[in-house]
Task: structure prediction
Amino acid sequence: MKPSQTISRAELYRLVWAEPLTRLAERFGVSDVGLRKICQRHDIPLPPQGYRQRAQAGRAQPPAPLPRAGEQEMIDLPALAVASEFATDLMDRVYGPLIEAESRPDRRIEAPPHVDPKHPIAKRILKALKAAVPDMYGAVVYDGPEPFRVRVPPSSISRAARLIDALAQACDARGLEIRTRDGPKGQSGIMIAGEAECLALEEASQRKVHWSTDAEKARTRRLGYSTAPMYDFVPSGVMTVQISTATYRDGVRSLWKDGKTRRVEDCLNEVMAGLYRSSHSAAIKQRKSELRQQRADEENARRELLREERLAALEQLEELEAQTDAWSRARRLRAFIAAYDVANRGADGHLAQDASAWIDQALRHADRIDPLTPTPVSALDYAEADLRPISVWQIPDD
Result:
């Protein structure tokens, strides 16, 4: 865990306008979403979208003024877990340069209107969308082998195809492989450092109350009931581009849509940067999964040793208790044998021969039971198989 940090409100305001939020968040050991919430909580204005791109293009705008600038307020940043060495190294070595490159003017992705798609994937999707039948909401859907899922009204088919064409050509220009499910590897996705990312384009429909036409009213009067729909679904005019594989990845922006001042065509470089961040997040998740599995294997191995140690201790305890019981039995037997000896001696101290033989046999039994005494040969050593009666047919001929 990273220790908690304290920073002045004015200093944090200066930093968020001087550095990209993602880089600053990494320095503080928090997510960029978490840092954004901290700034909003303390009334610190943040740079608008496209601020750094405009600055690099020579059209920098002045930072928004800090409200209540005279107040000396200190902010405690939460002590969140620091990104692992693996995540930091991967960002610095692989993803960081790729994300930074997307903000350069010469890497800008264009999707000009009224231009036919050139990329084969965009052409196939355009052909499939034109041949598709609208669903009950008035939208056509493409969910084929390519890593681009589309759901748009027929009036937006060309626009969706141009967006896919721009993104697919950008992937080719950046050396990113686009795999399809019907390819040799059977995996669909934009491959980034071994991670497959997918995109979804959608223009949602708006539901409006249906007003019956004269023909529908006449039909209602004739039939006695209405067959007209309750609602009409019309295009919303708001296109969205989503990284469908990043929907549940914390700290990764996965959705861009038309706004009042920007359309998704102006956000395609941000989409590419989002693909890189999503891939980075997936790689971290995979690495964490591997580390958890490794720690689980190590813990299970440790527990297996403990189980073996406990089993050996239990076996030793059982053997100890059994030997203690046997030793106690042997002592009781010897005590009884000694008493038997005394009881069977005559007045002259002489012991009869049969009593002496019995005592010798009994002492051998006691020695046999005693774990601390070498076991003498006894009739009890005979195996049961050697004592069982046999048939005449088991006797071999001479």
The chain has three domains: 5-78, 91-291, 327-386. The radius of gyration is 43 Å. Residues 268-343 form the longest helix (76 residues).
